[in-house]
Specification:
27% helix, Rossmann fold, six-stranded mixed β-sheet, 2 domains, single chain, binds magnesium ion, alpha/beta, binds adenosine-5'-diphosphate
């Protein structure tokens, strides 16, 4: 007799953060963060200026050492590069004689195994990464002549080329016009679906992500809550997080959080205890 077995596959955690705390000198900018992200999830990281969003991403990228707590990438076990990271600001001198392929190649060279790639294979990987962000044929394009949206997609290709489990993007939509921002969101969404890559994308405006994100992490004053939009973007949840009254307005399918005083950018880190 043949017994058919069905294997139940529940997605593994891509990221587990336990009691994470990050301090710059004596100021704690992230504190008591606990959250789990499933493999393949598209997560928006939302919050006012100075909330700690970039600090969170830099810590996940291994650029800042946590002052307390643990970060694990269970699904990336055995992978040499759990994360691909695109920082918030990337200033490119338009006169530098760099091509798109050179920028993407940095994603290989920045790692120990960079030079182990034979040239042909290296070129193929770079071209594949450019194709994933809809920039087939752009490999030899001068980097300084790329539009804002194209440059952002080249940087995403650079983060993808090392085949990471998690893609960490810090404000990839800022300073883009609506159409280019939409293209970036669509490309990242497709990459996450096609490659099963887990995405954490920081934005101060959640609206462009509403159609594609599975859940969001809302960061305010170094505290974070994770959940679906309906679970998190609620007056009672956000009042607690902000520590004062905010209003959540839903207008024509858009969401506005009103009363977000720190959005002006003067938020300082809070004192720990
Ligand atoms: N290198 C640093 N040294 C000291 N304070 C910093 C540093 N980087 C950021 N901060 C402070 O940490 C807080 C969080 O900053 P950041 O993570 O950049 O917030 P966000 O990305 O949400 O705007 C802010 O108060 C900011 O001024
Ligand atoms: Mg930031």
């Amino acid at each position: 007799m043949k017994i058919e077995q069905t294997v139940q596959t529940t997605p593994q955690a891509a990221l587990e953060i336990t009691d994470l705390g990050v301090a710059y000198e004596s100021t704690w900018v992230l504190d008591h963060i606990d959250l789990t992200v499933k493999q393949g999830e598209f997560i928006g990281i939302i919050g006012p200026n100075g909330a700690g969003k970039s600090t969170l991403l830099k810590t996940l990228a291994g650029l800042i050492r946590p002052s307390r707590g643990e970060i694990r990438f269970p699904a990336a076990r055995g992978r040499r590069h759990p994360v691909g990271y695109v920082p918030q600001r990337f200033d490119l001198d338009p006169d530098l004689p760099l091509r798109a392929r050179d920028l993407v190649g940095l994603g290989l060279d920045g790692h120990r195994w960079g030079f182990a790639w034979p040239n042909a294979q290296r070129g193929r990987k770079i071209e594949q990464a450019l194709a994933q962000v809809d920039l087939t044929g752009f490999a030899d394009h001068p980097a300084g002549k790329l539009s804002g949206g194209q440059l952002q997609r080249v940087l995403i290709a650079q983060a993808l080329v090392s085949d990471p489990e998690l893609l960490l993007l810090d404000e990839p939509l800022s300073s883009l016009d609506l159409a280019s921002a939409q293209t970036v969101v669509d490309v990242v969404h497709r990459v996450s679906q096609n490659l099963g890559v887990t995405v954490l994308l920081v934005t101060h405006d959640m609206n462009p992500l509403l159609p594609v994100m599975d859940r969001l992490i809302y960061v305010v004053n170094g505290q974070a809550v994770i959940g679906t939009v309906d679970q998190v973007v609620q007056k009672d949840v956000l009042d607690k997080l902000y520590g004062y009254d905010v209003e959540v307005l839903r207008l024509h399918g858009r969401i506005l959080v009103v009363g977000d005083e720190t959005a002006s950018g003067d938020a300082a880190g809070f004192e720990h205890r």
